[in-house]
Amino acid sequence: MERFRAHYGVGPLAIIAVIIDLRIMYKDDNLEVKNLMMTLCWLKLYETENGLKGLKIRLAGIPDDRTYWGSVDCLHAIMNEFRTDPGSKWYSHKHNGAGVSYEVVVDICESWVLWTAGPKPASTHDVTFFRGGKEESSKKKKKNEASWDKNALYFQIPKGKKLIGDSGYEGEPDKVSTSIAEHDGEVKEFFARAKSRQETVNTRLKFFEVIGGRFRHGKGAKDKLKLHQMCFDAI
After folding, report:
1. Interhelix angle 221-234/33-45, nearest 10 degrees
2. Which pLDDT tens digit goes with each residue over 135-194?
3. pTM of the entire structure?
4. CA 235/CA 232 separation, integer angstroms
5. How many CA atoms within 13 Å lie on the side-chain side of 30?
6. pLDDT by residue (tens digit) across 29-48?
């Protein structure tokens, strides 16, 4: 099993589940399994550059019976230096070098990734990423909100629904709940479990060397970001 995971990043049962989902999604019982296995192997080992097509995950079918439907966090991926666009904005405090950030939302009840976004420069604060990646120009939230990217996760959360996040999201209590001292034991445990599942997903994404290792493809900043996003979305 360890040897299998070393080549494909996940176990056989996970791959079987992906095959079933793909056959249902594309209504095709004759999908080429070997193509999936080759792609997984490339993403895990990351030795050469091949053509990949990512499938962006976007929110859909938010349950009506749950207030908290997901947890949110950002993960950093290591990159080679952006020589055509140098600057401190790429600096990742997690890796002490150049990197990018991705936003990931995980369902708190089901084994699903509900949302992904990115990449953005690694120095982008989690809550800034969540709002739309714009720097604050005014102390009035409404005035700043007008300049935020309307495709950002902030604008996708319906009224009355919330995510669970770490302290980096304290600035958005109406959209993301964070742990506070006043919470009772059950709430603290619930939040802790949700955030633990989130960290597990982030860690498993990094099992694939194309995300967990240093990304070295791309001729310029724009090309490098496009290729890296394509690999991330494919995973």
Report:
1. 130
2. 555 456 666 787 889 999 999 998 888 999 999 999 899 999 999 888 888 999 999 999
3. 0.74
4. 5
5. 0
6. 777 787 788 778 777 766 54
